[in-house]
Write a structure and sequence with these properties.
The complex is a heterodimer of chains A (401) and B (272). Chain A is mostly helical and 401 residues long. Chain A folds into 2 domains: 46-147, no CATH class; 177-397, MetI-like fold, CATH 1.10.3720. In chain A, 72% of the residues lie in helices and 1% in strands. Chain A has helices at 2-42, 46-50, 52-58, 69-84, 88-98, 102-113, 121-128, 135-144, 151-156, 177-208, 211-226, 229-240, 245-252, 268-291, 296-304, 309-337, 341-346, 354-363, 368-392, and strands spanning 159-161, 167-169. A two-stranded antiparallel sheet of chain A has the order 1-2. In chain A, a hairpin with a 5-residue loop joins strand 1 (159-161) and strand 2 (167-169). Chain A is elongated, with a radius of gyration of 30 Å. Chain B has 272 residues and is mainly alpha-helical. Chain B has 2 domains: 38-67, no CATH class; 73-271, MetI-like (MetI-like fold). Helix content of chain B is 77%, strand content 0%. Chain B has helices at residues 2-5, 9-35, 47-50, 60-67, 69-100, 108-120, 123-136, 143-167, 171-179, 184-212, 216-221, 229-238, 244-271. In chain B, helix 6 (108-120) crosses helix 8. The longest helix of chain B is centred in the first third of the chain and has 32 residues, at 69-100. Chain B is globular, with a radius of gyration of 24 Å. Classes of the chains: A mainly alpha (401), B mainly alpha (272). Chains A and B meet through helix 1, helix 10, helix 11, helix 12 and helix 14 of A and helix 2, helix 5, helix 6, helix 7 and helix 8 of B.
């Protein structure tokens, strides 16, 4: 019994040896970056590193009234040092996100403290800006001073931590992310439905065509699949813009007056139309590969047993095509909710999705912690759907039909 | 049977609907091609173009992109990055697919899930993570950083394609070669690889297409020296939209058609 085990073990090791280089490569070039980003969503040491003593002394503060003089003294010293080390801007930005208006208070105070060398610091700082007499300012500093924090995730789902430690909704005007997540899911759902509606009949047609014609029709589906995403997006701008081809046709045929040209791009319509076009092949290919396996004799049998075409379709064909529907719909939905490029280019202001908000916080507001937390929420959603896809279809049959 | 043979109203409607969907799929892309020959800086057909007036058609946008160093430079960048990323993705992806073809591999499903995850991870998340991670390694704004990132994004396509080809490979051929005295390397080189080559090449073309079309990672990680064609188109669409973009797009459409026909040809060969 011992002899046959050894070669099998060796084959297993050899197989693992073949897989290992790629596993390591993906681990370093892809998984590690994701982990870095997720770390950033809960770990933010900037304020903690800049104001360690202030934060340590604030621990003892009961949160009412102003903190003791020792806190002011430490803050004055550390803010002055942060100004000298040029980290005060980063500190101010973070404090400002918790309590609006504090950016200039922190930077301004730090600048003026350079000219002061003697206390009492409470009076001195309050004289520079009376925000230092407001407990809210110190709460904001204490909040941002947490090295490990849930506040980005709370923020990403429109929650905040109040000074007393309880969790509450953001004020009405700052509740934007849940609505955006919801909009992303809705748009993903609409696009998935549209793709199913458009893709099901043509997948059926291709599956029932003789091989030569089926190949030709498949190429028509694959043309957009292979064409650059930017080309396809450009194409939709050209077609849909107010001075574009479609509006010109509508005006020329008299369906629309020249000053009544339709706004079909740089809004939600543009996002939905262009994304449906981009994702349609991902619906058609899995549908087609399942439908190809449904024998045409089944429909004939149903008809010969007296079923109307509609009955035969609903009772015989549709149930057999469901695996393809599930695979295509999941794939399109997964890709749709993470989409960035098309909404960014044709979405205007109301056609933006959660990915665009992540890009905004990465590139414009520079609130990287929040960008990472929004990304973390989106990634969790995608991974759940991905696991579901693996259960239903198997990931190795992804995308290519 | 009777319902199927009579060309009823329902069937006509079905065929008409299918035709419209095919038009929806292909027409937007085809519209770009004639518009790229517009003599005017517009994105729609001028009256002269519709009258087929030769003066309304021109090659000026093609001349513009050929003479513009921003475009030619971005083509060089796209090729360098695309080819390098493809080589890495194809070698590592093919090796991994060969390993995974062995059913004895432990945790096969989990490994497959990890290897294919770059395909479904929203690219904005990947790009944001790569921006932090690669900058920390000093690979921000370098060709190498983007090449590694693109290789990671392209590798799932190689794994999927080669795995599919290997599923059709008869392991008895390996045993036959071994029984005739061939070592594992000879068997691979002389028997297995020639049979799976179409799948490997298809996977490589997929990986190249991914890199050649990728813009988000380049946006986040690339500097001025790493501008690729999609990156250049991105600014073109966002900033000074000019029909020169349509000329580039026409090139890319022709290129995509070439890739598609090659892959289809390989697929049929692989099956035969």
């Amino acid at each position: 019994m011992k002899v046959p085990v050894a070669p099998e073990r060796r084959a297993q090791l050899r197989a693992l040896g073949l897989v290992a280089p790629l596993l390591i490569f993906i681990g370093v070039t892809f998984i590690a970056p994701l982990a870095t980003m997720l770390t950033r969503s809960v770990h933010d040491p900037v304020v903690a590193d800049a104001l360690p003593e202030t934060l340590a002394l604030l621990e003892a503060w009961d949160g009412t009234g102003t903190p003791p003089e020792a806190v002011y003294a430490a803050a004055a010293r550390e803010l002055e040092r942060a100004a000298a080390e040029r980290t005060v801007g980063q500190v101010a930005g973070r404090v400002n996100r918790v309590q609006g208006g504090l950016r200039s208070v922190v930077t301004g105070t730090a600048r003026e403290l350079e000219d002061l060398d003697r206390g009492p610091w409470r009076e001195a700082m309050t004289a520079i800006d009376d925000a230092w007499a407001d407990p809210a300012t110190w709460h904001a500093i204490r909040t941002t001073g947490e090295r490990f924090t849930a506040r980005h995730y709370l923020n990403a789902v429109d929650l905040q931590r109040l000074p007393d430690g309880s969790v509450a909704s953001q004020p009405e005007e700052r509740r934007i992310y849940l609505r955006l997540f919801w909009r992303t899911l809705m748009v993903g759902g609409v696009i998935t439905l549209l793709c199913l509606l458009l893709g099901y009949p043509i997948a059926h047609l291709i599956a029932r065509s003789p091989p030569h014609r089926a190949n030709l029709l498949l190429v028509l589906v694959l043309v957009p699949f292979w064409t650059s995403l930017l080309v396809r997006t450009t194409a939709w701008i050209v077609l849909l813009q107010t001075q574009g081809v479609l509006n010109d046709i509508l005006v020329a045929t008299g369906l629309v007056s020249d000053d009544g040209r339709l706004a079909m791009v740089y809004n939600m319509t543009g996002t939905i139309v262009a994304m449906t076009h981009v994702l349609l092949p991902f619906m058609v290919l899995p549908l087609y590969s399942v439908m190809r396996g449904i024998p045409s004799t089944h429909m004939n049998a149903a008809a010969s047993l007296g079923a109307t075409p509609l009955q035969a379709f609903l009772r015989v064909y549709w149930p057999q095509s469901l695996p393809g529907v599930g695979a295509g719909a999941l794939l399109v939905f997964i890709l749709a909710i993470g989409y960035y490029i098309t909404p960014a280019l044709v979405g205007g202001s109301d056609g933006q999705l959660i990915s665009n908000m992540i890009a905004y916080h990465m590139q414009t507001s520079l609130n990287w912690g929040l960008a990472a937390a929004l990304g973390g929420v989106l990634l969790a959603g995608v991974l759940v759907l991905y696991a579901l896809y693996d259960r239903l279809v198997g990931v190795e049959r992804m995308g290519l039909g | 049977m009777t319902a199927a043979t009579r060309p009823g109203l329902g069937r006509m409607a079905y065929l008409a609907f299918c035709t419209l969907v095919f038009v929806f799929l292909v027409a937007p892309i085809l519209v770009i091609v004639p518009l790229s020959f517009n003599a005017e800086p517009y994105f729609t057909f001028t009256e002269g173009m519709l009258r087929l007036d030769p003066d309304a058609w021109s090659l000026r946008w093609y001349r513009e992109i050929i003479e513009n160093e921003a475009w030619t430079g971005s083509l060089v960048n796209s090729m360098v990055i695309g080819v390098s990323a493809t080589v890495i993705a194809t070698v590592l992806g093919t090796l991994a697919a060969l390993g995974l073809a062995n059913p004895a591999v432990p945790a096969r499903r989990a490994i497959m899930g990890i290897l294919i995850s770059p395909m479904v991870t929203p690219v904005i998340i990947a790009a944001a993570g790569m921006f932090f991670f690669y900058s920390g390694l000093g690979l921000g704004q370098t060709h190498l950083g983007i090449i590694l990132a693109h290789a990671a994004l392209g590798v799932p396509f190689v794994v999927v394609t080669v795995t599919a080809t290997l599923a059709a490979y008869d392991p008895n051929l390996t045993r036959a070669a071994a029984s005739l005295g061939a070592g594992p390397w000879t068997t691979f080189r002389r028997v297995q690889f020639p049979l799976i080559a179409p799948g490997v090449i298809s996977g490589a073309l997929f990986a190249f297409a991914v890199s050649f079309d990728e813009v988000v990672v380049v946006l986040f990680m690339g500097g001025v020296d790493q501008r690729t064609i999609p990156r250049q188109m991105w600014s073109g669409i966002r900033e000074q939209i000019s029909p020169a973009i349509l000329a580039v797009a026409t090139f890319l459409i022709a290129f995509a058609a070439l890739l598609l026909l090659t892959v289809e040809w390989l697929r049929r060969r692989g099956r035969a």
